[in-house]
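Batch job 17 of 40 flagged for manual review because the log was empty.
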Amino acid sequence: MIVAIGASAGGMEATKELLQHLPAETGLSFVLVQHLDPKHHSMLTDLLSKQATIAVSEVKDGMRIERNHFYVIPPNTSMSITGRTLRLSPREESRGMHMPIDHFMRSVAEGYGDHAIGVVLSGSGTDGTLGIAEIQGHGGVTFAQDDSAKYNNMPRSAANSGSIDYVLPPTQIAQELARIARLPYRETPLAVEAAVPAPDGAALASIFQTLRRNTGLDFTHYRQTTILRRIQRRMVVHRMEKLEEYVRYLHSNAGEIKSLHQDMLINVTSFFRNPPVFDLLSSLVLPTMMKDRAADSLIRVWTPGCASGEETYSIAMTLLEFLGDRASQAPIQFFGTDVSEPSVTKARAGVYPENIQGDVSPERLKRFFNRVDGGYRISKSIRDMCIFAQHNVLNDPPFSQMDLICCRNLLIYLEPVLQNKVISLFHYAARVNGYLVLGASEGVGASGNLFATVDRTYKIFSKKASAARQPVTFSLNRASDRAEYGTMRTPLHLPDTSSTYLEAQKEFDRRLVTQFVPATVFVNDELEIVHTRGNVSRYLKLATGRASLNILKMARESLLVELRNALGRAKKEGTNVSKQNVLIKNGNGEGNGGEHHGEPSARLIGFDVMPLQLGQAKEIYFMIVFRDEGVISTAGRKTKQSPTAQKVMDATNGRITKLEQELAATKEYLQSVIETQEATNEELQSANEEILSSNEELQSTNEELETAKEELQSANEELSTVNDELRNRNADISTVNNDLTNLLSSIDVAVVMLAPDATIRRFTPQAQKTLGLILGDVGRPFLNINPPVKIPGLQEMVLQVIGNAQMVEKEIEVREGYGYHLRILPYRTAEGKHEGAVITLVENIKH
């Protein structure tokens, strides 16, 4: 088993604590990925080796990992693992955060599966969040440091992702690692097709029954080796060694049922996973799919088992990049489905950590994502194209008429009986010549008569046009299931309906709409007509000039003012508005039969305006229902009138004429006001577009600042690591200095250390007495010192030793029977260089 450890700022202390409490014999291999300054040599290996009970080594390219060893990444590199060999590559120079922990943990997850362990220690940023999720998704066990972390951003981000099994201090992490290493079933991986022992088989059947009863999912025909690994992972988390013990715990703990259910689903995904597949989609699949296709033809794409949505959004981005300027004209629908409700909820939100910078190019981040706190969010234009739903591809009815189905790494978890069923469902769901994309280890198996191979390497297939439709069932009902859960309910059969009855019903509906439904118009928030019912030609007409569906431009002249007022009031107050006795004049054949021989007539109408809000949509619609209230004749026959009556009628007609003139003038004024308002609106719209353009520029500037901030944060983490190393090195130097000071103070020998220029560096207390030195002599040339002990040729001997690095020894007699043994040695550094001299004077008393 391999333990991948990720750390950044403050991670040195946590790693030391972890190493101090690890037993010498665990059988595990440890690899530390630490954020290091790429431009400086790291002393991390030397510092950690002093605290460890196991061997600590800095990684070299091609190094094989051994058990009970601790490996440290060198600076300015990215690291991965193949088998038991560590591979180093130069650190890529890219903008944004460097994510070496995610990179290494992903390779560990892919190579070791459930025999991988991930640990995230102290650090700022979010590096390790995606990598730890991959390890857990492949069945490994994951740890994060608790609040004891000096910088808790990294471990907290990993814990918040839901991919952490244990949140502990480093001391307890070491204890748990030692415990996991001792578990018997963690020693060697299960064989791919290993048979499950009989007792375990009975226990598994009980687990399947519990999951099916509580979640509705039947895992009976999932690969049992995979299922057993997931169960064993849960047993590790709960410190259990016997399967029967875990079954009892599962039956008595509803929360564990939910946790096991989520573990079973194995939500492992990322953006643009296996990039060559997306390159092939752009170069081969999409051009063929879009060839000879009508511009308004709907494009439908389905990604079953979409997990948290990365696969769906990746295909959406690939398609939009391929379409280019045509993307705004082509109707597109993406369907992402998964059995996990939390995954579907996350996919709908479209929010992902900043670690996706390693999978998504800067160009795509800028075009398809918006920056949010702590990460990125898919732009609204793409989210509006994508529909995410909880859906079980094995039991629920499939979608239909799909141009592309992308289902990667789902079939590998199913046994052949379910694989064949899923392939048949995909054949049913795809349109003729539609495409199917599977995972690298998957295929259509015995269903080669349904799909033709387009690319064998990357498992791309197309539906055969000549293939016979396969019988499709939407659930796998077994006799044992019916025996266990009782007789299954049979849905009631609807009475047989003949085609004659259906045709009669359609004709009935058509005549009802055309003859009896009142004239009705549906308009949107911009007052554009979106639908009509009944005969609306008596109230609306196509205006001259440029065609427009705006209802205020299509309304008949005498209806315009009342209709505008009613719509404005309904929009402002959000209530129904009703109008009665609105007079509409008809002429030139515009009437409804109320005219006699070309004589003008008028009609009284009424209408209701009702605001509508559909579902969760924010846009408001309006339904306008018109009704006739009678015809008024204005062409009376000429009759004899009395003079008085004639005068009254003339006065009345004159008054009417005057009012009509005033009304016409008012209409002209209102029309000019309307035109001025429309011109103002156009100017405001132009100003709004300029503001939007400025906003985009500001957003781009903000993204540049965010990127610079990330680079500074990365540099700060690396400097923090260097600072930790220097602080530890300083502590070591201080200890050595104290040791040296105490050593020199304790010996009764005169010792003087000289620099290459013969200046005094350090001396012992005995040298003060013998040679007459004082503390202020440190840094002074030794040649200027006149010692009380007369030593002939002392200065020449010192210069000789400094020059040729050859030792000099001499006996000095001060008086009879008393003298000194003089020894002058070259001063040697740890690297073997000669930098000065060391003078020692030892008393020599002759008896």
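Reviewer: the log was empty due to a logging misconfiguration, but the result itself is present. The two ends are 71 Å apart (CA to CA). Unflagging and moving on to job 18.
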